[in-house]
Amino acid sequence: MLRKVSRDGCGYSVVELYDVRHVLAVAVPRGGGSLEVQAHDALRTIEAVHAEEGTRGSIVHQAVFIPTPELVPQCREIIRDFYGDEQPATSYVVQPPCDGKLLAVEAMGVGRGMGEVRIERFGDQAVRVTHNALSWLHCANVTPRDDVTGVYNQTISAMSRMRGVLAKRGIGFDRVIRMWNYLGSIVEDEGGVQRYKELNRARTAFFEGVHFLRGCQAGLPSSAEVYPAATGIGMQGTGLMLGCIALAMDDRPDVVAMPLENPNQTAAFHYGARYSPKSPKFARAMALSCGAFATIFVSGTASILGAETVHPGDAEAQTRQTLDNIEALISERNLRQHGLPGLGARLEDLGMIRVYVKRQDDYETARAVCRARLGDLPMVFAIADVCRPDLLVEIEGMAFSRRK
User: What stretch of H or E contains 77?
Assistant: First the structure.
């Protein structure tokens, strides 16, 4: 079901899921040179992977990590020229790649297998993929209106724009299963309030009255709080950018979208006011099951037990704890407790991860821990502020499981 390959400059996973081949790839330039030279090296590497796997032209969602905001326009032009009419939904994330390159690329492809796959592209902000009576909308690079200031208002503006992008393609905002919130200067203050706390305040206000994935959680009481899996992470500058994956499954009553909480962590939406006056509204993960298969979208995860940071100042211990938290989150024991027996996963069932490191000096330490625990898994390492000053590492990813 899951095959992983690592070679010079690229790591990728191939997942045969729902009779469809999924290819998850990470590429970094193998040499130096200009942004254009490095970008073409990484993009051609990913292109070669898809040609080899028989999924050419199938990239639907892409994140490009770059060190400064000034490089975004040039990077976008390079990528648009490279893909032409086959633009993926692409986010330009201003987080310096840890290895010192001018960019790193993470790409998700959905290619033809035994089942029929239809890909509809709407520029580099939205791509719809339809297969097996499931319609996925990948949405990227959503920013607030230029005339809006302040994190709270910018978040409301960007989420409103995202809702509009989804609505234009016939999908409600309540169908969002995975979100990314990239916020510049995330731990800095704005008007005496931390910027991340303002994002949480806006997220709480915007989500009010939204019943996420209603009817898709077998066994959950109607009063249960349901939110998408999400990452809230820093980036360079002071901007805000959102991305998401939404899923329409009206003709598939057998599909279950189950939010997962970690048995060793307090639910983020139950955090006390000392962490944020309005708690972060996200699930620790979202498990999407269909028959014998499950895809688990793992939210940004850090070295937290209960609601407290553990191992402050120790990047190695924080990385180990973060992986322990992910291991518990996706475990068979936890999936069974959430009503999905037989669909638990292990760390070896991860298909790809991103590792956000606060300090460049901790990169090699975090990388060594991840390689020791995860082997040749495709990984992106980028420099980014985590939402608490005492957190040094955050990890997100995707895991896949099959009922035995």
Answer: helix 72-83
Rounded to a whole number, what is the distance in angstroms from the first to the last CA of the chain?
12
CA atoms within 13 A on the CB side of 230: 23
Residue among 121, 81, 75, 97 nearest 29 (CA): 97
Q: Any residues with CB less than 8 A from the CB of 363 and at least 6 apart, and which?
A: 98, 99, 357, 381, 383
The CA-CA-CA angle for residues 268, 298, 389, to 5°, reads 50
Strand-pairing partners, residue 89, are 61
The beta-strand segments (E) located in 165-238 are 176-184, 189-190, 193-194, 229-235
Nearest Cα neighbor of 369 from 298, 322, 319, 326 is 319
Helix (H, G, I), strand (E, B), or coil: what is residue 364?
helix
Give the tokens for residue 235.
């980036």
* The pair of three-digit structure tokens given for residue 326, joined into one six-digit string: 């992910």
Token code pair at residue 402: 């099959």
Residue with tokens 């809006």: 148
Can 394 be counted among the known catalytic residues?
yes
Best CA proximity match to 288, nearest among 234, 229, 370, 333: 229
Nearest residue to 338 (alpha-carbon basis) of 270, 257, 265, 398: 257
**Angle 101-383-149 (CA atoms, 0-180°, nearest 5)?**
115
* Count of CB atoms situated within 10 Å of the CB of 253: 10
Count CB-CB contacts under 10 A for residue 76: 16
SS3 370: helix
> Mean pLDDT, 10 residues at a time, over the chain (404 residues)?
88 90 96 97 96 92 98 98 97 98 97 78 96 93 98 98 97 97 97 96 98 86 91 97 92 89 97 94 96 95 98 98 98 96 97 98 98 96 96 98 89
Query: Kind and range of the H or E element at 357?
Result: strand 350-357
> Among residues 106, 261, 394, 396, which one is catalytic?
394
